[in-house]
Inverse folding.
C-alpha cells in the first residue's frame, strides 16, 4: 500500500520557540465577567451515562464534603477507598471498583448527607504545540486534520493502543521509547517484531510517534501506546494466514485487557476475498477492536480487502490541496480520507523518509481513533467510527461522496462532544431447505436497501459470506454486517456450488447501536426432482441413484457426493422413508445423514443424527418401518438403535436392542417385514436374528437362523419379498441364500444363487422390486447384478449395471 517518494533532505532546520504571554486590563481578568459578558457557567449537568463524561481517570471520583465530615465513611458507603484527602479543600479522592457506572456512583454520593458535591476526576492538559523539529517543517498531515487543536483536549493515554499490523516496528527508534507493548511475529512465530522493511515503522510514526519530546516528529496520538504485530516480511508481503494471525492476536489482546481500547491499523491489502481474514476481522470487531485499513492504491473505484470487509474503516488518501490522490482507491465502501501524499515519518535505523499511499493515510485515522477512544472509552468501535465520520470535514459536497467518503478526518472535531451513532449491526443466519434446516457456510449474502416486500431490490449496501466456523471466529452459517446505518433492509443469499438462492420475505429494521437478527432459507435452483423413484446405492464415497430398468454401463441419474457440504464420509447403507427423505449411514463420521427427497449434488443434509447421546458408533445397516421409525445396526457395539420419526441432532434412541441375550454379533444388515418383525444379519456370528415389533433391551430373538445347514458364513445384506421369503448375501462364498418365510434354527436355504455364471463377487447389498426381481451389489467388481424371480443355481443375471459404481455396499429401491 505504499508509493515511495524519496527526497534528499538538506538545509537548515529552524526550531521556532513561541512564548505564550497574556496581558490583562481593567476587569478582563480570568474568571471575572467584564462589561457585557455573561457570568461564567456553573458545573455541567451530569450526563445520563459515563459516555457523556469528559476525559477522566477511570474508577475515580472527587467528593466534596461539609467540614468535619468523615470522608472515609462516605467513601465506604459508595464502595470506595480514599486515596488522598484534600483537607484544606474539604474534599477527597476516592478509588472505586472497576465496573459500576461512574455516573450512578456520583448520583449516589450527591444524595448523601454531608456531601457538597461529587464529580469525576477529570483530566486536564496544557495547551501546547509539539516542539518536535520536523513537525512544522516537514509534517503537514497533523495540521491538515486539526490534530494540534485535538491535542489541547487529549493526546491519547496508556489505555489507548494502536496495533500496527504490518512489517513490524523498529524497537530502538527513540520516537517509540517506552511505549512499545509486547506484540507478536506471525511471519516467523516466536521471532522478534522488529521492522525489516520500514513500512511498519513509517506507519507507526504517523499514528503514534512521541510528541513534544524535542526530537523528530509528532504522531497523531502521541501518548498512545503501540502494539507491534508483524504480518508482512522484509519484502512487504504476507499471506492470508499471517494477516489473520495478526488480526486475531489483536482481538485476543483486547479481550484479555478489557481496560485497553485498541485500534488495529492495516496498511495492507489485496483484491482477494479471504474468508479466513473476514472471520478474524469479525472476531476483532466483536472483541471491541476498531479496524482501520488502507483503501488501496490502484486509483480506481474498486474494492480491496481488508478495507472492503463490513465494519472496517476504509481510508483513502488526499493531497495538501484536499484533492483525492491520483492513486487512491475510492468507492461506496470508503469511510473517510486523510493525508497520504509526501508524508514524512519514521523509518529504519532512526531515520525519516517521505512516503505516499493510502498506507500513510490510514494511520492518520487510526491515531485520531485512538484519541477518541482515550477520551470516550465507553464508545463501541461502530460509535467511534460514526464519531469520526460525522465530524469529518466534507469534501466534494455536503454528504457522502465516493471520492472522499464522509470527508477529511478532523481530529479536533472528533474529540468533541460524542454524536449519536447511526450504525447498527446485522446478523444473517442462512439455512438450507427450512428456517430450522442446516446452517450454510460460504453463502454469498447481500444486504440491500429495503423495499416493501423485498422485491425489486436495486441498491446494494454491503456484501459478505457466511462463516465456515472454526478455525475462523464466526458462527458457521452466519453472515455479520457491522457498522450498518440505521434503516430498513432486505437480504439475499446465494450459493454457486451447489446452485441455490434465498431471500428475506419482508424488510427488517436496523436501529442505531442495535443488532438485527434475521434468517434466510436457501433452496436448490433448479428444485430437486419430484420423481424419487430409482435404485439408491451406497458407494465408498457417494450415493448414486439409477433409473428403474437401468442396464449396462449407464450413468446414474443423480449423485450425492462426499463433500464438505454433504458430510458424506464412508457411506455404508441407504434407505428412504415414506416421504422420500434419504437416510445415509455414514461410518466415517458416525452418524445418519438425512437428505430431502430428490436431493442431488453438493447439498447439505436436512438433518443429522449424531453425537454421544445417539450411541451411534459404527453404523452399517438402516431400515425404516411403515411409521418411519428408523432402525440402525451398530456394528461395534452389537446393538440396534431405534429412532422416532423426525429425529435430529444429538438425540437418544427411543429404544435399543442390545446385550448378550440378543444374539447380536457384529450386526450389519437390517430389514423389516410387513408385520414389523426385525431381521438382522450378524456378520461375525454367521446368523440371522429375528425380533418381534417393539423389541427392546437385552431380550433374546424370537428366532435365529444359524448352523452349518444354513450355509451362512459371512452374511451382510438382507431383504424380504412379498411372501416373506428371506434373501441374504453371503460375502465370502459369493452366494445369495434364500430362506422360506418363518425359517428358523439350522435350516437349509430354500435355494441358492451361486457359481461363475452369476457374476457374483463379494455380494453385499440386496433388494427386491415389486415384481420379485432381485438386485445385488458386488463390492469387488463394482456392479449390480439383477436376477429374475425364482432365480437359482449358477444362473447368469438378466442384466448388469456397472456405470459410476465404486465399491458398492448396501442398496435400496424405491
Amino acid at each position: 500500500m505504499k508509493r515511495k517518494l524519496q527526497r534528499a533532505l538538506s538545509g537548515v532546520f529552524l526550531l521556532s520557540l513561541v512564548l505564550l504571554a497574556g496581558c490583562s486590563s481593567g476587569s478582563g481578568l480570568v474568571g471575572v465577567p467584564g462589561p457585557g459578558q455573561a457570568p461564567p457557567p456553573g458545573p455541567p449537568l451530569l450526563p445520563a451515562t459515563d459516555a457523556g463524561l469528559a476525559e477522566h481517570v477511570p474508577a475515580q471520583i472527587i467528593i466534596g464534603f461539609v467540614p468535619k465530615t468523615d470522608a472515609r465513611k462516605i467513601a465506604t458507603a459508595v464502595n470506595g477507598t480514599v486515596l488522598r484527602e484534600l483537607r484544606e479543600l474539604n474534599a477527597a479522592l476516592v478509588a472505586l471498583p472497576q465496573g459500576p457506572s461512574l455516573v450512578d456512583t456520583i448520583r449516589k454520593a450527591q444524595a448523601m448527607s454531608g456531601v457538597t458535591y461529587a464529580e469525576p476526576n477529570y483530566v486536564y492538559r496544557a495547551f501546547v504545540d509539539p516542539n518536535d523539529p520536523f513537525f512544522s517543517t516537514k509534517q503537514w498531515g497533523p495540521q491538515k486534520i486539526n490534530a494540534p487543536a485535538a491535542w489541547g483536549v487529549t493526546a491519547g493515554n496508556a489505555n489507548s493502543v494502536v496495533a500496527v499490523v504490518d512489517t513490524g516496528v523498529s524497537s530502538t527508534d527513540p520516537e517509540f521509547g517506552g511505549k512499545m507493548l509486547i506484540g507478536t511475529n506471525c511471519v516467523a512465530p516466536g521471532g522478534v517484531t522488529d521492522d525489516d522493511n520500514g513500512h511498519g515503522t513509517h506507519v507507526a510514526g504517523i499514528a503514534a510517534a512521541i510528541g513534544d519530546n524535542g526530537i523528530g516528529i509528532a504522531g497523531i496520538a502521541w501518548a498512545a501506546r503501540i502494539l507491534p504485530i508483524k504480518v508482512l516480511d522484509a519484502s512487504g508481503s504476507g499471506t492470508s494466514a499471517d494477516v489473520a494471525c495478526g488480526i486475531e492476536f489483536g482481538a485476543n489482546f483486547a479481550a484479555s485487557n478489557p481496560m485497553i481500547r485498541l485500534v488495529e491499523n492495516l496498511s495492507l491489502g489485496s483484491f482477494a476475498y479471504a474468508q479466513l481474514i473476514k472471520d478474524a476481522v469479525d472476531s476483532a470487531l466483536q472483541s471491541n477492536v476498531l479496524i482501520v485499513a488502507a483503501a488501496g492504491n490502484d486509483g480506481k473505484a474498486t474494492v480491496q480487502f481488508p478495507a472492503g470487509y463490513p465494519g472496517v474503516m476504509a481510508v483513502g488518501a488526499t493531497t495538501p490541496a484536499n484533492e483525492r490522490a491520483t492513486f487512491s482507491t475510492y468507492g461506496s465502501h470508503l469511510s473517510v480520507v486523510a493525508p497520504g501524499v509526501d508524508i514524512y515519518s519514521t523509518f529504519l535505523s532512526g531515520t525519516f523518509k517521505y512516503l505516499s499511499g493510502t498506507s500513510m493515510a490510514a494511520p492518520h485515522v487510526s491515531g485520531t481513533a485512538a484519541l477518541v477512544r482515550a477520551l470516550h472509552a465507553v464508545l463501541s468501535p461502530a460509535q467511534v467510527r460514526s464519531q469520526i465520520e460525522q465530524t469529518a470535514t466534507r469534501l466534494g459536497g455536503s454528504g457522502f461522496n465516493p471520492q472522499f467518503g464522509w470527508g477529511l478526518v478532523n481530529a479536533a472535531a472528533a474529540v468533541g462532544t460524542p454524536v449519536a451513532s447511526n450504525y447498527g449491526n446485522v446478523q444473517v443466519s442462512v439455512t438450507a431447505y427450512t428456517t430450522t434446516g442446516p446452517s450454510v457456510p460460504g453463502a454469498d449474502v447481500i444486504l440491500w436497501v429495503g423495499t416493501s416486500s423485498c422485491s425489486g431490490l436495486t441498491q446494494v449496501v454491503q456484501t459478505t459470506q457466511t462463516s465456515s466456523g472454526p478455525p475462523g471466529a464466526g458462527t458457521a452459517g452466519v453472515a455479520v454486517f457491522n457498522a450498518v446505518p440505521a434503516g430498513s433492509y432486505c437480504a439475499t443469499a446465494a450459493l454457486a456450488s451447489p446452485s441455490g438462492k434465498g431471500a428475506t420475505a419482508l424488510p427488517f429494521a436496523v436501529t442505531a447501536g442495535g443488532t438485527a437478527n434475521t434468517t434466510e432459507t436457501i433452496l436448490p435452483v433448479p428444485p430437486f426432482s419430484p420423481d424419487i423413484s430409482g435404485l439408491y446405492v451406497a458407494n465408498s464415497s457417494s450415493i448414486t441413484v439409477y433409473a428403474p430398468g437401468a442396464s449396462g454401463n449407464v450413468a446414474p441419474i443423480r449423485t450425492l457426493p462426499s463433500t464438505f457440504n454433504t458430510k458424506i464420509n464412508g457411506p455404508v447403507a441407504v434407505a428412504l422413508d415414506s416421504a422420500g427423505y434419504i437416510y445415509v449411514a455414514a461410518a466415517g463420521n458416525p452418524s445418519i445423514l438425512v437428505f430431502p427427497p430428490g436431493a442431488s449434488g453438493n447439498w447439505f443434509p436436512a438433518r443429522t443424527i449424531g453425537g454421544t447421546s445417539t450411541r451411534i458408533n459404527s453404523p452399517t445397516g438402516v431400515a425404516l418401518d411403515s411409521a418411519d421409525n428408523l432402525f440402525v445396526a451398530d456394528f461395534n457395539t452389537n446393538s440396534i438403535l431405534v429412532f422416532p420419526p423426525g429425529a435430529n441432532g444429538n438425540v437418544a434412541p427411543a429404544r435399543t436392542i442390545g446385550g448378550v441375550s440378543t444374539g447380536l454379533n457384529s450386526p450389519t444388515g437390517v430389514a423389516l417385514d410387513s408385520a414389523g418383525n426385525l431381521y438382522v444379519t450378524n456378520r461375525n456370528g454367521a446368523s440371522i436374528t429375528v425380533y418381534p415389533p417393539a423389541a427392546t433391551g437385552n431380550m433374546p430373538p424370537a428366532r435365529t437362523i444359524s448352523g452349518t445347514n444354513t450355509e451362512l458364513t459371512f452374511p451382510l445384506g438382507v431383504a424380504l419379498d412379498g411372501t416373506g421369503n428371506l434373501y441374504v448375501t453371503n460375502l465370502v462364498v459369493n452366494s445369495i441364500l434364500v430362506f422360506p418365510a418363518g425359517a428358523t434354527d439350522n435350516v437349509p436355504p430354500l435355494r441358492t444363487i451361486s457359481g461363475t455364471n452369476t457374476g457374483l463377487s463379494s455380494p453385499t447389498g440386496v433388494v427386491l422390486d415389486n415384481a420379485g426381481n432381485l438386485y445385488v451389489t458386488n463390492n469387488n467388481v463394482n456392479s449390480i447384478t439383477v436376477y429374475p424371480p425364482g432365480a437359482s443355481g449358477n444362473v447368469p443375471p438378466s442384466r448388469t449395471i456397472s456405470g459410476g459404481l465404486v465399491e458398492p455396499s448396501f442398496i435400496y429401491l424405491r
Notes: The first strand starts at residue 3 and ends at 4. The mean pLDDT is 87. DSSP finds ten helices and 46 strands in the chain. The radius of gyration is 37 Å.
